[in-house]
Amino acid sequence: MITRSVIMGRSEDIFEKIVKDGEKAINEFILSQKSEELFLDFKRSADEGSGSKLNDTDRKNLAKAISGFGNSEGGVVVWGIDCSKNEDNADVPHSKYPIKNVKRFVSWLEGTVSGCTVPPHTKVQHHYIVINDKEDGFVATMIPKSDHAPHQVVVNCNYQYHYYIRAGSNFEHTPHAVLAGMFGRRPQPDVYHNYLIDPAEIINGIMKIRIGFAIRNNGPGVASDLFMNLNTMLLPGENCDCTPDVKEDHWIPQITKGFKKGQVIVNAISRYTLRLAPEVFYTPISILLDIAPPFTEKLIIDGNCGCGQSPSCKFRIENDCKTIEDLYNNFVEKGKNCILTDKEKYNLAIKILNIAPTHKRSNSK
């Protein structure tokens, strides 16, 4: 399963809040006078999306944001909110100006992104929030830090061919020294985690689930000095257990057992012989979970992974004991009446772990 960090970067955190809370998040920004900052920018559409195409001013603002946020640490643009200065001279949101036919506005933005900068930023995301039957609403545009910076604005405007960075609450021209460093920067890896899940099995009343914890490099650079740390904080009950397994051929492992049954801390760092190419993942650690009643606690497994050339990525597997108990009982009862397919067993493992479905196991080591 390709999955991003639970403890994300600031821009991803803001974007996820907007996706999760919708208009409530927009209202909170205004009520709390949330000022524009390094990772957040508010924009009122020049025509509220009433034209037949994306307004030229909106196109220019999008291009500037892609360059500025992409060349910096990433950020989010919220469309449909107007700002003004407060007594501290900070830009704060004060009014909502919903965009007409917000789904159409998103399609305009999506069709514009590739022509805003050179090189294009391929990881820009948009999320719309519909607030009425006319499909008016707001849009959040998430612009991650780019692996292919620097990005130059190329739309036809008064800052065409300029490079920007985010400085405070503004987009500023990129200083020559910073720009020179960007052009000379080696491609960087972008390392995060995958889950590789086997179908669940019931043996003598004990449900067994094997989880592979993989490290994936999604950046353009080669990753080295890789590491993976796991901590089984809580198991669902006293009859549950956790057995770790570390590939020691390319990894230096350290396994520490806790006071309770199944509590394990696993640390693994790669030997100098292992490097991870772009678009490849490697599975250094797997654990075998034994799940059996009674169920009295949550299931919590914390982890993080990374490499020597990029920030670490934190993640968590968590589910409550009542959900696990219901899934276990349903699985056992169903198994008495028929032979379960591998797909059904796999789906059970996914539900027990409370994670999204896995991707195909390609380019793995």
How are the SSEs ordered, and which strands pair?
Layout lengths: L9 H12 L1 H9 L8 E4 L12 H15 L4 E5 L1 E5 L5 E6 L5 H11 L4 E2 L6 E6 L6 E7 L8 E2 L10 E4 L2 E4 L2 H9 L6 E7 L3 E3 L2 E12 L9 E8 L6 E6 L4 E7 L6 E7 L9 E12 L7 E9 L2 E10 L1 H17 L4 H12 L12
Parallel strand pairs: 1-2
Antiparallel strand pairs: 2-7, 3-4, 5-8, 6-7, 9-10, 11-13, 12-13, 13-18, 14-17, 14-19, 15-18, 16-17, 19-20
Helix pairs in contact: 1-2, 6-7
Number of domains: 2
Question: Can you identify the CATH superfamily of the largest domain?
Answer: Schlafen, AAA domain
Residue fraction in strands? 25-35%
Q: CATH topology of the largest domain, which one?
A: Methyltransferase, Cobalt-precorrin-4 Transmethylase, Domain 2
Q: What is the average of the pLDDT values?
A: 89
Number of strands: 20
Question: How would you characterize the overall build of this protein?
Answer:
The protein has 365 residues and is an alpha+beta fold. The protein folds into two domains: 10-184, Methyltransferase, Cobalt-precorrin-4 Transmethylase, Domain 2 (2-Layer Sandwich); 191-353, Sandwich (Immunoglobulin-like). Helix content is 23%, strand content 35%. It has helices at residues 10-21, 23-31, 56-70, 102-112, 176-184, 321-337, 342-353; strands at residues 40-43, 75-79, 81-85, 91-96, 117-118, 125-130, 137-143, 152-153, 164-167, 170-173, 191-197, 201-203, 206-217, 227-234, 241-246, 251-257, 264-270, 280-291, 299-307, 310-319. It is globular, with a radius of gyration of 24 Å.
